[in-house]
Amino acid sequence: MTLLLSLLLVHLLADFPLQTKRMAARKHHDRRVLLRHLSIHAVLMLFVLTFFVMRGTLSIDSAGWLGGSILVFHALLDASPLKRRVKQAAAYWIDQTLHIVAIIALTWVFVPVDWSLSFSRPEQILWILCFSLVTTELLGHGISLLLLPFAPRLIESHFERKVTRKEQLDGVSRTVTHEVEDSARSYTTELNGIGRYIGLVERAIITLLVATNATGAIGFVIALKALARFKQFEDRRFAEYYIIGSLLSILGAILCGLAIRVAV
Protein backbone atom coordinates (compact mmCIF):
# COMPACT_ATOMS: atom_id res chain seq x y z
CA MET A 1 0.00 0.00 0.00
CA THR A 2 2.88 2.39 0.75
CA LEU A 3 4.30 1.99 -2.77
CA LEU A 4 0.88 2.42 -4.38
CA LEU A 5 0.12 5.59 -2.41
CA SER A 6 3.59 6.95 -3.22
CA LEU A 7 3.03 6.42 -6.97
CA LEU A 8 -0.42 8.02 -6.78
CA LEU A 9 1.11 11.01 -4.99
CA VAL A 10 3.75 11.26 -7.73
CA HIS A 11 1.00 11.39 -10.35
CA LEU A 12 -0.99 14.05 -8.52
CA LEU A 13 2.09 16.21 -7.93
CA ALA A 14 3.32 15.96 -11.52
CA ASP A 15 -0.11 16.50 -13.09
CA PHE A 16 -1.16 19.47 -10.96
CA PRO A 17 1.25 21.60 -8.88
CA LEU A 18 4.26 20.76 -11.10
CA GLN A 19 2.43 21.14 -14.41
CA THR A 20 2.04 24.65 -15.81
CA LYS A 21 -0.99 25.86 -17.73
CA ARG A 22 1.12 25.97 -20.88
CA MET A 23 2.20 22.36 -20.47
CA ALA A 24 -1.37 21.21 -19.85
CA ALA A 25 -2.62 23.02 -22.96
CA ARG A 26 0.19 22.03 -25.36
CA LYS A 27 1.38 18.58 -24.30
CA HIS A 28 -1.26 16.86 -26.45
CA HIS A 29 0.13 18.24 -29.73
CA ASP A 30 3.69 19.37 -28.91
CA ARG A 31 6.14 16.51 -28.34
CA ARG A 32 8.76 18.68 -26.64
CA VAL A 33 6.23 19.88 -24.05
CA LEU A 34 5.01 16.30 -23.57
CA LEU A 35 8.60 15.10 -23.00
CA ARG A 36 9.16 17.81 -20.37
CA HIS A 37 5.96 16.74 -18.62
CA LEU A 38 6.94 13.06 -18.74
CA SER A 39 10.44 13.85 -17.46
CA ILE A 40 8.92 15.34 -14.29
CA HIS A 41 6.94 12.14 -13.78
CA ALA A 42 10.04 10.03 -14.49
CA VAL A 43 12.28 11.88 -12.03
CA LEU A 44 9.74 11.73 -9.18
CA MET A 45 9.01 8.07 -9.89
CA LEU A 46 12.74 7.28 -9.98
CA PHE A 47 13.17 8.66 -6.46
CA VAL A 48 10.20 6.64 -5.18
CA LEU A 49 11.20 3.36 -6.83
CA THR A 50 14.87 3.75 -5.80
CA PHE A 51 13.77 4.24 -2.20
CA PHE A 52 11.75 1.01 -2.21
CA VAL A 53 14.55 -0.92 -3.95
CA MET A 54 17.02 0.26 -1.30
CA ARG A 55 14.58 -0.84 1.42
CA GLY A 56 14.49 -4.30 -0.14
CA THR A 57 10.72 -4.31 -0.67
CA LEU A 58 11.06 -4.09 -4.46
CA SER A 59 13.48 -5.78 -6.85
CA ILE A 60 15.33 -3.78 -9.51
CA ASP A 61 13.60 -5.72 -12.30
CA SER A 62 10.14 -5.15 -10.84
CA ALA A 63 10.92 -1.46 -10.29
CA GLY A 64 12.05 -1.10 -13.91
CA TRP A 65 9.00 -2.84 -15.35
CA LEU A 66 6.59 -0.99 -13.06
CA GLY A 67 8.06 2.46 -13.65
CA GLY A 68 8.42 1.89 -17.39
CA SER A 69 4.86 0.59 -17.75
CA ILE A 70 3.35 3.53 -15.90
CA LEU A 71 5.40 6.02 -17.90
CA VAL A 72 4.55 4.44 -21.27
CA PHE A 73 0.84 4.31 -20.44
CA HIS A 74 0.96 7.94 -19.30
CA ALA A 75 2.67 8.98 -22.53
CA LEU A 76 0.16 7.11 -24.71
CA LEU A 77 -2.79 8.59 -22.85
CA ASP A 78 -1.45 12.16 -22.95
CA ALA A 79 -0.65 11.86 -26.65
CA SER A 80 -4.03 10.31 -27.51
CA PRO A 81 -6.70 12.29 -29.41
CA LEU A 82 -9.09 11.97 -26.45
CA LYS A 83 -9.34 15.70 -25.78
CA ARG A 84 -9.96 16.45 -29.44
CA ARG A 85 -12.84 14.00 -29.74
CA VAL A 86 -14.56 14.35 -26.38
CA LYS A 87 -15.82 17.45 -24.59
CA GLN A 88 -13.24 19.11 -22.38
CA ALA A 89 -14.83 18.25 -19.02
CA ALA A 90 -15.54 14.62 -19.97
CA ALA A 91 -12.03 14.23 -21.39
CA TYR A 92 -10.50 15.53 -18.15
CA TRP A 93 -12.40 13.10 -15.91
CA ILE A 94 -11.82 10.14 -18.25
CA ASP A 95 -8.12 11.00 -18.47
CA GLN A 96 -7.62 11.25 -14.70
CA THR A 97 -9.67 8.11 -14.02
CA LEU A 98 -7.63 6.08 -16.53
CA HIS A 99 -4.34 7.38 -15.08
CA ILE A 100 -5.29 6.43 -11.52
CA VAL A 101 -6.78 3.06 -12.48
CA ALA A 102 -3.68 2.23 -14.53
CA ILE A 103 -1.34 3.04 -11.61
CA ILE A 104 -3.40 0.85 -9.27
CA ALA A 105 -3.62 -2.03 -11.77
CA LEU A 106 0.06 -1.99 -12.78
CA THR A 107 1.23 -1.78 -9.17
CA TRP A 108 -1.02 -4.74 -8.34
CA VAL A 109 0.51 -6.73 -11.21
CA PHE A 110 4.15 -6.20 -10.21
CA VAL A 111 3.92 -5.85 -6.42
CA PRO A 112 1.57 -7.52 -3.90
CA VAL A 113 -0.71 -4.85 -2.44
CA ASP A 114 -2.12 -5.06 1.08
CA TRP A 115 -5.71 -3.80 0.76
CA SER A 116 -6.45 -3.82 4.49
CA LEU A 117 -7.69 -0.61 6.11
CA SER A 118 -5.06 -0.83 8.85
CA PHE A 119 -2.70 2.01 7.95
CA SER A 120 0.83 2.49 9.22
CA ARG A 121 2.02 6.02 10.03
CA PRO A 122 3.77 6.53 6.63
CA GLU A 123 0.65 5.24 4.85
CA GLN A 124 -1.53 7.65 6.82
CA ILE A 125 0.67 10.58 5.78
CA LEU A 126 0.66 9.52 2.11
CA TRP A 127 -3.11 8.97 2.19
CA ILE A 128 -3.70 12.44 3.64
CA LEU A 129 -1.37 14.06 1.09
CA CYS A 130 -3.09 12.27 -1.81
CA PHE A 131 -6.59 13.28 -0.78
CA SER A 132 -5.42 16.82 0.01
CA LEU A 133 -4.31 17.14 -3.62
CA VAL A 134 -7.51 15.50 -4.84
CA THR A 135 -9.73 17.97 -2.97
CA THR A 136 -7.70 21.08 -3.80
CA GLU A 137 -6.38 20.38 -7.30
CA LEU A 138 -8.08 17.46 -9.06
CA LEU A 139 -11.62 18.40 -7.97
CA GLY A 140 -11.02 22.11 -8.51
CA HIS A 141 -10.00 21.71 -12.15
CA GLY A 142 -12.73 19.17 -12.80
CA ILE A 143 -15.54 21.28 -11.35
CA SER A 144 -14.30 24.37 -13.21
CA LEU A 145 -14.42 22.49 -16.51
CA LEU A 146 -17.89 21.09 -15.79
CA LEU A 147 -19.25 24.58 -15.08
CA LEU A 148 -17.25 26.40 -17.76
CA PRO A 149 -20.16 26.69 -20.25
CA PHE A 150 -22.31 28.30 -17.54
CA ALA A 151 -19.69 30.42 -15.76
CA PRO A 152 -20.58 34.13 -15.83
CA ARG A 153 -18.10 36.76 -14.75
CA LEU A 154 -19.34 40.27 -14.21
CA ILE A 155 -17.27 42.92 -15.95
CA GLU A 156 -17.87 46.60 -15.44
CA SER A 157 -16.71 49.03 -18.12
CA HIS A 158 -16.52 52.71 -17.28
CA PHE A 159 -16.72 55.34 -20.00
CA GLU A 160 -17.55 59.00 -20.46
CA ARG A 161 -20.25 60.42 -22.71
CA LYS A 162 -21.43 63.92 -23.50
CA VAL A 163 -24.98 65.06 -22.79
CA THR A 164 -26.33 68.23 -24.40
CA ARG A 165 -29.41 69.98 -23.07
CA LYS A 166 -31.03 73.38 -23.23
CA GLU A 167 -31.11 75.61 -20.16
CA GLN A 168 -32.92 78.90 -19.61
CA LEU A 169 -31.45 81.48 -17.24
CA ASP A 170 -32.96 84.98 -16.73
CA GLY A 171 -34.96 84.63 -19.90
CA VAL A 172 -31.89 83.69 -21.95
CA SER A 173 -31.93 80.26 -23.57
CA ARG A 174 -28.61 78.48 -24.10
CA THR A 175 -27.29 75.05 -24.97
CA VAL A 176 -25.04 73.38 -22.37
CA THR A 177 -22.94 70.24 -22.84
CA HIS A 178 -22.03 68.09 -19.80
CA GLU A 179 -19.62 65.16 -19.56
CA VAL A 180 -21.24 62.22 -17.77
CA GLU A 181 -19.47 59.07 -16.54
CA ASP A 182 -21.39 55.86 -17.18
CA SER A 183 -20.75 52.19 -16.62
CA ALA A 184 -21.81 49.09 -18.49
CA ARG A 185 -22.00 45.51 -17.27
CA SER A 186 -21.41 42.38 -19.30
CA TYR A 187 -20.67 38.72 -18.68
CA THR A 188 -17.94 36.47 -19.92
CA THR A 189 -16.69 33.06 -18.85
CA GLU A 190 -13.91 32.58 -16.34
CA LEU A 191 -11.87 29.46 -15.62
CA ASN A 192 -8.86 30.61 -13.65
CA GLY A 193 -9.85 33.71 -11.71
CA ILE A 194 -9.77 34.54 -8.05
CA GLY A 195 -12.89 32.41 -7.58
CA ARG A 196 -10.84 29.29 -8.29
CA TYR A 197 -8.51 30.04 -5.40
CA ILE A 198 -11.42 30.83 -3.09
CA GLY A 199 -12.89 27.44 -3.96
CA LEU A 200 -9.54 25.75 -3.37
CA VAL A 201 -9.24 27.21 0.13
CA GLU A 202 -12.92 26.44 0.83
CA ARG A 203 -12.49 22.76 -0.09
CA ALA A 204 -9.27 22.49 1.92
CA ILE A 205 -10.93 23.92 5.03
CA ILE A 206 -14.07 21.76 4.70
CA THR A 207 -11.95 18.64 4.15
CA LEU A 208 -9.95 19.49 7.28
CA LEU A 209 -13.12 20.11 9.31
CA VAL A 210 -14.65 16.79 8.24
CA ALA A 211 -11.39 14.91 8.86
CA THR A 212 -11.17 16.36 12.38
CA ASN A 213 -14.90 15.81 13.06
CA ALA A 214 -15.54 19.55 13.41
CA THR A 215 -18.37 19.64 10.86
CA GLY A 216 -20.31 22.28 12.81
CA ALA A 217 -17.99 24.98 11.49
CA ILE A 218 -18.72 24.18 7.82
CA GLY A 219 -21.76 26.46 7.86
CA PHE A 220 -19.57 29.41 8.84
CA VAL A 221 -17.23 28.78 5.87
CA ILE A 222 -20.16 28.60 3.45
CA ALA A 223 -21.76 31.75 4.88
CA LEU A 224 -18.49 33.69 4.67
CA LYS A 225 -18.06 32.77 1.01
CA ALA A 226 -21.67 33.69 0.22
CA LEU A 227 -21.31 37.05 1.97
CA ALA A 228 -18.57 38.11 -0.46
CA ARG A 229 -20.90 37.39 -3.41
CA PHE A 230 -24.12 38.72 -1.86
CA LYS A 231 -24.63 41.62 -4.28
CA GLN A 232 -24.19 39.36 -7.33
CA PHE A 233 -27.02 37.07 -6.20
CA GLU A 234 -29.42 39.62 -7.71
CA ASP A 235 -28.49 38.11 -11.05
CA ARG A 236 -30.31 34.78 -11.40
CA ARG A 237 -27.78 33.31 -13.81
CA PHE A 238 -24.89 33.97 -11.46
CA ALA A 239 -26.86 32.69 -8.45
CA GLU A 240 -27.62 29.37 -10.15
CA TYR A 241 -24.01 28.99 -11.28
CA TYR A 242 -22.74 29.81 -7.79
CA ILE A 243 -25.09 27.36 -6.07
CA ILE A 244 -24.33 24.35 -8.28
CA GLY A 245 -20.60 25.08 -8.15
CA SER A 246 -20.62 25.42 -4.37
CA LEU A 247 -22.67 22.24 -3.90
CA LEU A 248 -20.29 20.21 -6.07
CA SER A 249 -17.28 21.71 -4.29
CA ILE A 250 -18.71 21.05 -0.82
CA LEU A 251 -19.76 17.49 -1.73
CA GLY A 252 -16.28 16.69 -3.04
CA ALA A 253 -14.61 18.18 0.03
CA ILE A 254 -16.86 16.22 2.41
CA LEU A 255 -16.14 12.94 0.60
CA CYS A 256 -12.39 13.61 0.71
CA GLY A 257 -12.63 14.46 4.40
CA LEU A 258 -14.47 11.19 5.06
CA ALA A 259 -11.81 9.31 3.10
CA ILE A 260 -9.08 10.84 5.25
CA ARG A 261 -10.96 9.79 8.39
CA VAL A 262 -10.75 6.18 7.17
CA ALA A 263 -6.98 6.30 7.50
CA VAL A 264 -6.67 8.28 10.72
Descriptive report:
- Helices cover 67% and strands 13% of the residues.
- The protein is an alpha+beta fold and 264 residues long.
- The model is unreliable at 155-159 and 184-192 (pLDDT under 50).
Summed up:
The chain is of the alpha+beta class and 264 residues long. The chain is built from ten helices and two strands; from the N terminus they run H-H-H-H-H-H-H-E-E-H-H-H.
Provide the fold topology.
Layout: H1 2-15, H2 21-26, H3 31-55, H4 60-79, H5 82-85, H6 88-110, H7 121-147, E1 153-169, E2 172-188, H8 194-211, H9 218-228, H10 236-263
Helix pairs in contact: 1-3, 1-6, 1-7, 3-4, 4-6, 6-7, 7-8, 7-10, 8-9, 8-10
Largest sheet geometry = 2 strands, antiparallel
In the sheet with the most strands, the strands line up as 1-2
Number of helices, counting only DSSP H or I runs of 4 residues or more: 10
Rg of Cα set = 26 Å
The percentage of residues in β strands lies in 5-15%
Nearest-integer average pLDDT? 81
Helix content: 55-70%
Please tag this protein with its features.
264 residues; alpha+beta; two-stranded antiparallel sheet; 10 helices; 2 strands; 67% helix
